[in-house]
Design goal:
Keywords: Cell membrane, Cell projection, Cilium, Cytoplasm, Cytoskeleton, Membrane. The chain is about 15% helix and about 35% strand. It has about 350 residues and is an alpha+beta fold.
């Protein structure tokens, strides 16, 4: 699957370095909150002026002189942010932004120094956006038995609109099933039991892999498959009479497709003071970052490919490589064997 396709997104859930240009372009629904320069990546690239781009999904930094030197920090990976006194290659001893992040059992420390005197915008932007991200997880995370229903009413999210409300829908997770109601909004599906509203599930469209109708021991059932990285659940629902299922399926698939084309991540910022300059959510604006080297480097590529294979349930089928004259495992999109074998110089 192309990394620019929806669900599950990777931009907010991975920490990656020296990415190809296509990986730096904004995902559909991703928007820039702030663009700040000059910023130094003091720990990783001391002495190099760079630009920081803060979006609703991640923090991007790239060198101004060599844009192929860059990093992408998903907001879901950020553990904490603080300030730290550091020795900058360009400013000497100064106060800097310290970001602690975790990804795939590894922890990463990032130190960003604003080279403009007395400017702390990089700190306030990152902290503010990360706080907004953490407070909007219901837009992106599947939740079981959470406090989302009160007096048979869904607690609405700020950008949410109810599109479908179906009563008399059975959840088939038990031997006898549980009778309840199914709601569909512009960001998620919600089911809750009639006799116990605490027995519920909230499924953002971004976590849903497919919505179909299948035969079950209860007869035809509406089946919702959740992405493996979001839990891998397979959930069944039944509605009587069964003629209700096909129209309901068509409506849910339409809502899911509409979200896929224009996702709503729920991260919104209301700046107390004047909004930062140069904010723009046009993907083309990112082209000024320039053309990176076109690969992660062999070690990081192989590590990420190995992790991906562990997550994939289906075995990977080999393909023929004219470059080697052998059958090999398919490469990720945006990579070539020539890139992986080249020795890069700086």
């Amino acid at each position: 699957m192309s990394k620019n396709k929806i669900g599950p997104i990777w931009q907010d859930r991975e920490v990656l370095f020296d990415l190809p240009f296509t990986y730096l372009k904004l995902h559909s629904g991703e928007k820039i909150f702030d663009r700040i320069e000059p910023i130094e990546d003091t720990k990783g690239n001391s002495g190099a002026k760079g630009r920081m781009v803060v979006t609703n999904l991640r923090i991007i930094w790239h060198s101004m002189s060599s844009p192929r030197i860059n990093l992408s920090i998903g907001l879901n990976c950020v553990i904490s942010t603080s300030t730290k006194v550091v020795n900058s290659g360009l400013r000497g001893t100064t106060q800097a932004l310290y970001v602690l992040a975790a990804f795939k059992n590894n922890k990463y420390e990032f130190v960003f120094t604003n080279l403009s005197p007395n400017c702390v915008r990089h700190y306030t932007s990152v902290v503010g956006v990360h706080k907004a991200y953490a407070g909007s997880r219901l837009y992106r995370d599947l939740k079981l038995r959470s406090a989302i229903i009160q007096n048979k009413q869904l607690k609405m999210l700020p950008l949410e609109k109810i599109c479908i409300h179906e009563h008399g829908v059975w959840n088939l997770s038990s031997e006898s099933g549980n009778l309840g109601s199914l709601l569909a909004s512009n960001v998620r599906l919600v089911w809750y039991a009639d006799i116990n509203e605490a027995f519920n599930i909230s499924m953002p469209y971004i976590t849903i892999e497919s919505i179909t109708i299948r035969n079950s021991k209860f007869g035809d059932a509406l089946v919702i498959v959740i992405h493996a990285s979001c839990g891998g659940y397979v959930l069944g629902f039944r509605a009587d009479p069964r003629e209700r299922l096909q129209p309901l399926l068509a409506e849910l698939q339409t809502l899911h497709q509409a979200y896929t084309e224009k996702p709503i991540f729920g991260v919104e910022m209301n700046w107390d003071t004047e909004a930062p300059n140069s904010t723009c959510d046009e993907i083309e604006e990112m082209e000024e970052i320039g053309e990176p080297r076109g690969e992660m480097g062999p070690h990081l590529y192989l590590a990420s490919q190995l992790a991906q294979n562990k997550e994939d349930s289906a075995p990977v089928q080999p393909v023929y490589s004219p470059y080697l004259g052998l059958a090999i495992e398919p490469l990720k999109e945006g990579f070539t064997l020539k890139n992986l074998f080249e020795v890069q110089t700086t």
